Amino acid sequence: MKRQPVSTDRFHLWLMLTLTFSTGVVDAVGFLGLDQVFTGNMTGNVVLLGMAIAGGSDLPVLRPALALLFFMIGAVIGGRALRTASEGWSGRTSATFLLVSVLTGGLALFTALVDVTADHLLGSVTTSTLALAMGIQAATAKRLKVAEITTVVVTSTITGLASDSRLAGGKSPFWVRRALAISLILLGALVGAAALQLDLWVGIALSAVLSAVVTLIGQLRHRKDRRAAANERELEPAAAG
User: What is the reported pTM?
Assistant: First the structure.
């Protein structure tokens, strides 16, 4: 029996779940290894800033504020790059995800060569660059419109999982992908924390590799889909005749 090909929508879901795991990794690296800064979950930074401004002891202000700013800049870059792109995956989607890979890959190399934890400025540059990359990633994922998957935050996913559950009287739509997103960002945080036992750059490098793999696989699938669509257009006149 011939195996049915995986639909493009499901393919994109798998890729975005991979990036969700990657976000968990970099958030663990930022929070545990770089002065309690979230580089993907901006809700956490906003809460940290509020508590720090209110006088919370030993809570950072500058790095969470910079991370928030650079995440927004990254989202602007991603949104601007994809504003006129076609629906679904496109060459521009690959370009923005590639930029995320380059930023995180370059940062992994930099942190492998330089002890950024020993210099406050270098540490701030590291967290800001990670946040910039995560902003670009979030904007690109948003453009793909994979239902319930943002790759950077799971609060709304948790809410949807509970409020739409059968226990709440709902029909539990998307419960599998919601549960996977929550589990993967948790697992990513676990892996990121474990990677810190080796070195700071290891978790960042893992994130860079995952982004690169997602970019490559997504682009290959995009090209395959384009060829299939072109072949269908060529066959339509013959079928009509």
Answer: 0.90
